[in-house]
Amino acid sequence: LVQLQYALNSLAAAHLFAGELTTATRLLEEERLIGEATGNPPIGYTEMTLAAWRGREAQALELIEAASRAATARGVGRMVNAATSASSVLHNGLGRHDAARDAAWRAFERDQLGFGPFVVPELAEAASRTGDEALVRAALDWLSERTEHTRATPSEWALGIQARVRALLSDGETADRLYRESIAHLSRTRVRVELARAHLLYGEWLRRRRRRLDARGQLRTAHDMLAAMGIEAFAERARRELQATGETARKRTVET
Q1: pLDDT of residue 250
Q2: H/E/C letters for each residue in 181-196?
Q3: For residue range 51-67, what is the model confidence (pLDDT) as tens digits?
Q4: Measured distance CA(248)–CA(141) in Å, rounded
């Protein structure tokens, strides 16, 4: 039944990135019950990532540290990468961009198959926030190699993230156009967590340019989406940014 546990983990991850965190949680509970009934250990990948996206710091750090120890002891490289990737999400959500950059860089440097699309957005955002333009460009080069120099048609997801990373390296009308382009691409996908973050980053950029009214619209959209999904740390980031524009948004939990 271990294959069923892996299948449930993968399905939970798909629901997580679609912003359906409640469904993801139910699937992980089912996976845990199967593990208990069969004596198999829990898979761990998605539970750790879910806690990081929720911004549940104590729970996420406990799961990340436990996974890192187990992976190191067993020589399981994929779990190490999953742990560092989850760590980068957690710290970006909490606004600790130095820690997010370092974690994302460790996973990015290993370049293990399957992790790049999840690590690159974290690395680019964290590097941009810490003024490390070289790392943002490294992230963009990785994306461009896969979206522009292959015969495969790039997905709307990849194009949306690429436009967002380009926006982080741009300014003025070019950045504005790229943020809107990113939102347009991502709105045609099921990856609602990244769409919400595109609105957040665009709103933060607009506020720093003192375009308060424009910023409020983007930040309000980001806050409402993130809060409704239960992505609490990123929602709190949006709430604080809204306050900085002179608008208030009450704290919400997924229960609210």
Answers
A1: 63
A2: HHHHHHCCCCCHHHHH
A3: 999 999 999 999 999 88
A4: 38
Token pair of 42, please?
A: 């829990």
Looking at the predicted structure, is the pLDDT value of residue 171 above 90?
yes
Q: Where are the alpha helices (DSSP H) in 97-211?
A: 97-110, 116-129, 133-147, 156-168, 172-186, 192-208
**CA dihedral of residues 47, 256, 185, 190 (deg, nearest 10):** 50
Mean pLDDT computed over 85-94: 96
Query: What pTM was estimated for this model as a whole?
Result: 0.90
Q: How far apart, in whole angstroms, are the C-alpha atoms of residue 111 and residue 105?
A: 10
Interior CA angle at 160 toward 86 and 174, to 5°? 120
CA 148 to chain centre: 23
DSSP 26-93: HHHHHHHHHHHHHTPPP--HHHHHHHHHHT-HHHHHHHHHHHHHHHHHHT-HHHHHHHHHHHHHHHHH
DSSP string of 12-31, one letter each residue: HHHHHHTT-HHHHHHHHHHH
Cα dihedral 122, 46, 13, 252 in deg (nearest 10) = -70
- Interaxial angle between packed helices 172-186 and 156-168, expressed in degrees from 0 to 180 and rounded to the nearest 10: 160
Cα–Cα distance, 200 to 57 (Å, whole number): 21
Residue 81 confidence (pLDDT)? 85
- Give the model's pLDDT for residue 152: 66
Report yes or no: 143 and 161 within 8 Å, Cβ to Cβ.
Answer: yes
The residue type found at 98 is D
